[in-house]
């Protein structure tokens, strides 16, 4: 699968929020809204916990002022792990924590990261995207799949301010 790009629609993927029986369609999250979706290789991992998620939480007010109506984080972890990670980082009310347990979203976006040697299984490449009514307007995928440069909140903020 090719990596999703600006102009592509979000895949019709199901993710989970808070607990395994709370199914969420990604398209429903962004339907009729402008927002930010970002993905990380793993909850509680160093770069994700020290920089990536905290950046979106600390820049929440700036991002919403620039037009984001919803901000969502996804990872190939279970719903309980994502909920606990969000709670630890005080994401409630700011960032939706979406578990992509079946990799429907990750595969649908063409963002599978082979992290078997590092994290034990396949994961999601680190990325960020600006979404407008289910359509990707900006797609930022880290060149190595896990770095912290083009997918940061500061980059997305600039993109929101220009659109």
Account of the 3D structure:
It is a single chain. This protein has 163 residues and is α+β, with helices and mostly antiparallel strands. The chain has one domain: 3-Layer(aba) Sandwich (Glutaredoxin). 33% of the residues lie in helices and 28% in strands. The chain is built from seven helices and nine strands; from the N terminus they run ββαβααβαβαβαβββα. Strands 2-1-5-4-3-8-9 form a seven-stranded mixed sheet. A hairpin with a 2-residue loop joins β8 and β9. The chain starts with 13 loop residues before the first strand and ends with a helix. The model has no long low-confidence stretch (mean pLDDT 94).
Q: What is the CATH third-level topology name?
A: Glutaredoxin
Radius of gyration: 14 Å
Tell me how many strands there are.
9
- What order do the helices and strands follow? EEHEHHEHEHEHEEEH
Q: How much strand?
A: 25-35%
Number of helices: 7
- Which stretches are low in confidence, meaning pLDDT under 50 for 5 or more residues running? none
Number of domains: 1
Identify the strand order in the major beta sheet: 2-1-5-4-3-8-9
Shape: globular
CATH class: Alpha Beta
User: Helices and strands: which structural class?
Assistant: alpha+beta
The first-to-last residue Cα distance is: 28 Å
Name given to the CATH homologous superfamily: Glutaredoxin
Residue-averaged pLDDT, rounded?
A: 94
CATH architecture: 3-Layer(aba) Sandwich
Percent in helix? 25-40%
Largest sheet: 7 strands, mixed
């Amino acid at each position: 699968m090719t990596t999703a790009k600006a102009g592509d629609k979000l895949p019709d993927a199901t993710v989970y929020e808070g607990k395994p029986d709370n199914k969420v369609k990604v398209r429903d999250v962004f339907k009729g809204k402008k927002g930010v979706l970002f993905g990380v290789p793993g909850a509680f991992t160093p770069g994700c916990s020290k920089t990536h998620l905290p950046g979106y939480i600390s820049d929440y007010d700036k991002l919403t002022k620039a037009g984001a109506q919803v901000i969502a984080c996804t990872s190939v972890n279970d719903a309980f792990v994502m909920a606990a990670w969000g709670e630890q980082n005080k994401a409630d009310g700011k960032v939706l924590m979406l578990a992509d347990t079946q990799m429907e979203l990750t595969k649908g976006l063409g963002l599978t990261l082979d992290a078997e040697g590092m994290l034990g299984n396949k994961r999601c490449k680190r990325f960020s995207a600006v979404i407008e009514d289910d359509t990707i307007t900006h797609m930022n995928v880290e060149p190595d799949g896990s770095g912290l440069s083009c997918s940061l909140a500061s980059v997305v903020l600039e993109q929101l301010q220009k659109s």
